[in-house]
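Notes from hallway chat w/ T.B., transcribed later so I don't forget. T.B. wanted the structure written out for a chain they're using in a teaching module, and asked if we could keep both sequence and structure tokens in one place. Agreed to drop them here.
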Amino acid sequence: MSCSSKEAKKELKDIISAGLAKHYPDSGILEKDVYASMSAPKAEFGDLSSSICLRIAKVAGARPGEVADRMIGTGQELLGNGYIKMLKNAGGYINAFFDEKRYAEDTLKAVMELKDSYGISGIGAGKRVMVEFPSVNPNKAWHIGHLLNALIGDSISNILSACGYFVERENYIDDLGIQVAQSFWGYANLGNKPDKKFDTWLGEQYVSVNKMLSDEKVKAQVDAIMKRMEEGDTEEAKKARELAERCVKAQLETAASYGICHDVMMWESDIVRTGMLAKAMKIAVEKGAAIKLDEGKYAGCVVVDLKRLKGIAKDFDNPNEETKVLVRSNGTATYLAKDLAFHMWKFGMLKGDFRYSEFGAVQKNGKQLYTTGSSGDMMEFGGAELAINVIGSEQRYSQLILKSMFSLMDMQNLADKLVHVAYGLVSLKEGTLSGRSGGWMGKEHVYTADALLVDAKSRVMEKAKESKKKVDTEEVAEAVAVGAIRFAFLRTNPEKSIIFDWDNALSFEGNSGPYCMYMYARANSILEKAAVDAAEVSRIDFGFAERKYDFELIKAMGRAQEVLEKSASEYRPDIIAEYLIELASLFSKFYEGTKVIGSGEAERYRIAVVISLMQVAGNFMRLLGMEPVAKM
């Protein structure tokens, strides 16, 4: 079901198209150009505006105002059967005014009838997409940079699912990396025993081991462990996997506390164990994306010749290096090689002999998490049409090489379907976030994602007392804390850096998660006081719709599907966050400027506005992983 806003835009497009056909048939202006010219003007200038006449005027050698008059003259014949009731010329802009009663009726009825399905879209119906996040090394607790990754991936998954995509949420576990080898060495040699949550303890030990690597003996032992891990069928490989799994289980407790869920965990050791890596390298060499060198600095290595990537992207026109190693001369693979193999599997180029088994308890979304391993059942994972990787901006170059290798293999279609959702740095006043140096520990707090949530719950209770909001249970405090953190992290364009500020994040008055959640609770309080039942849609008199605060709010609700689709197409949860702020601001104006309870015959209509607002706000908060709270 299309939203009211889309229908109104189609009407204006048809009006403009009719004018073009009659007066400017050779303008060369396409339907997409007409849509691109539309925007929402200030309320006093109408409900929908088009600047297309300015472009037509340049082509036709006429004044924009004259062009607009001709277009409006033709358009008058098409009015009366849809949402647009009047057209005006404003300096060459065509401004359309909606029929308040009809637009309000269709929008509010749609919201109240569709309920949780309102705003959803079918643009991705039938398409399989894999979203990879957060892929944290299994030797430390999540710090807030990892949390940002996870929140972006989780929200993008929600948004794409709401657009009809079949979404597979995947967590890639790099259990063969040097960091795991270092942690395994520390676990085996330092003699320390866990005295706190295992991932936090292991991460702190990792920081200690990293400082010991200046000792050549320690470094040599770590390198030997890493090689034995990659060989697969060794005692070191078995014990390192057990260590990593124990850490991941602790990380999943963090994920659960923020409502983050996955479908499957893919372990790097299983990619190597199943022989998929060797198959991938064979294909890459055969198709010319990689070469094995017999002499020179990289003799015995399988590499990518970066000079061959020139022209694929500007980054490769003058590269800082000419060669990227995939497999070292000693047979160990780099991260890029394993990533290439993994993406060949993602797109169905390789059929890995994976076995899957249940990992942990059923998650908060009611789904079971599965993991690859040496035993289990065959299952239908992978084979995606679109692969989305949520990875920090600093990995942009590596991701570009990965995409370009598909181009070298004459698989441009796959290169185009590999999407890197980059995100910037996240920082706190309390400290930096370097995993090796332990900066995530902070100056006064251990700013793991776990500690952030504990701190947030405490601060929410304090803020609630200051603002006299009702946050009187642990459950409500946790919902508000999670909502505050998720919203603060997600309301910024992923590519921009974030400085997390407690005052802004927890404000009940500003553009924050608690502010949007309070909108929902305030709407609920109105409904609890209402003496009439607006659930019976047929009994509502939509003639009470006015060109005031109520209609501005209704117009915003009418754009819900468009907002969702834009967010999905650009992989930007911040678009949803800004929409929630808009709804909260408009509802505040409506609430303060319009009498709802005791407004006589208009009360049923105005309560319908409140019901609809509550439904739309709840739907879109859940896209960001925020749980609406009825009482605050």
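Follow-up for T.B.: Residues 169 and 489 are 20 Å apart (CA to CA). Might be a good example for the class.
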